[in-house]
Amino acid sequence: MKIAMVGSGYVGLVSGACFADFGHDVVCIDKDQSKIDRLHDGVMPIYEPGLAELVGTNVKAGRLSFTTSLAEGIAGASAIFIAVGTPSRRGDGHADLSFVYAVAEEIGASLSNDAVVVTKSTVPVGTGDEVERILRSSGTKHRFAVVSNPEFLREGAAIGDFKHPDRIVIGTEEEFGREVMHEVYRPLFLNESPILFTSRRSAELIKYAGNAFLATKIMFINEMADLCEKVGANVQDVSRGIGSDKRIGPKFLNAGPGYGGSCFPKDTLALLKTAEDYESPIRIVEAVVKANDHRKRAMGRKVLEAIGGADTARGKRVALLGLTFKPNTDDMRDSPAIAIAQALQDAGVEVTAYDPEGMELAAPLMPGVVMKSDAYAAIDGADAVAIVTEWDAFRALDLARVKSLAKAPVLVDLRNIYQPADVREAGFDYVSVGRS
Ligand code: UDX
């Protein structure tokens, strides 16, 4: 079966490479010529573990190719995926659908066979209806169906998530849509991954509802962590205690500096906009969004307190370890590190930083922060070290070396990756999240 993937960004490229690995014939399309040129040379536009190898193998096997021409790429494809970006629209938080609709127009104008058009981009409820309207108004004579197939990939674990999904959601009311999607995901049917067929609107909402629920879970445990600090409880014990109730579940209950990334911040905002449009407020998600914004700045204040408070902070230096919104990615979007560095700089603190993959993208977002070539270079001369992202490389720091390099032995662990007793035994003032 031939599949076309329009948009070779994160979701498009990972999905395209995985579909090719299933044995399908896949063409990834992108209008960015330099991105396609680099892909032809085997250079990935994003950092994702295992992606370069997966792309390389499938290109070599002749199952995966790249082009800038949409008309050429979709010719003969039974399934055409739309996987272009849907960023937050500046000013109002609505998802910006202009890329999705522009692609739909172009597909309508160049369709040369019957095909199912699948929205994989995260799109608000009702977008499928508009894509269908655009295709119909193109006057195409070919048979088509518009299907919603939301993506649940986590950055850093995207290939594993794609190949072993908890579930696949396919939103369509049409038999043609079902048949083609069944064929697209046949290898996963064989794998016994559950496939949920729903209406198109339900599928569109599932993506937003899922992300909003996970964001809520994170912020619930984060606020519980604040209470733990006040009452002398340990948030990791509370997490384990509630998480082992099967109705709650153990995942997404790690307290930290707040959520970031390309999905949760944008999707919670877009869901609230939909709720507003339909006059059906989701007050719990409104509170989550506010609490998360507040938390990122509060983490900056937590670091300031660890160095003796904002009043005496001017001229001191803090080393930030980890800048990306989570490990195993170079993605800096809405990373808590940005707000933390800003809060420190506002108090006159000099900030040094190291991140294994994120420094290139971080530098323009964090003016004045001095990027260093490794963790110890960042720590050299610092009044405190703050772990912001839980990269494996920071889990086994040589504490004796940290102590000898830093000006003061202060460790702020915003991801709870150390045991308080171990760090204190090594002679540090140790501050973590929701633990005393
Ligand atoms: C998320 C969803 O998991 C995925 O299904 C969706 O398709 C896209 O958005 P991603 O943004 O890659 O994926 O990252 P994820 O691993 O979910 O983490 C999101 C944020 O939550 C990160 O900032 C992370 O640090 C934070 N988080 C996660 C916590 O603070 N605590 C947790 O227990 C889990």
From TrEMBL:
Alphabetized UniProt keyword annotations: NAD, Oxidoreductase
Entry EC no(s): 1.1.1.22
First-level EC class: oxidoreductase
Positions that bind substrate: F152, L153, R154, E155, K207, F252, L253, N254, A255, G256, G260, K326
Record Pfam families: UDPG_MGDP_dh, UDPG_MGDP_dh_C, UDPG_MGDP_dh_N
Residues that bind NAD(+): D30, K35, T86, T122, E155, K266, R333
The UDP-glucose/GDP-mannose dehydrogenase C-terminal domain, residue ranges: 319-420
Catalytic residue positions: C263 (nucleophile)
Pathway in which this enzyme or protein is active: Nucleotide-sugar biosynthesis; UDP-alpha-D-glucuronate biosynthesis; UDP-alpha-D-glucuronate from UDP-alpha-D-glucose: step 1/1
Single GO MF annotation: NAD binding
One annotated GO biological process: UDP-glucuronate biosynthetic process
Recorded catalytic activity of this chain's protein: UDP-alpha-D-glucose + 2 NAD(+) + H2O = UDP-alpha-D-glucuronate + 2 NADH + 3 H(+)
Family that this chain belongs to: Belongs to the UDP-glucose/GDP-mannose dehydrogenase family.
PANTHER family: UDP-GLUCOSE 6-DEHYDROGENASE TUAD
Protein name according to UniProt: UDP-glucose 6-dehydrogenase
Taxonomic source organism: Allopontixanthobacter sediminis
Lineage per the UniProt record: Bacteria, Pseudomonadati, Pseudomonadota, Alphaproteobacteria, Sphingomonadales
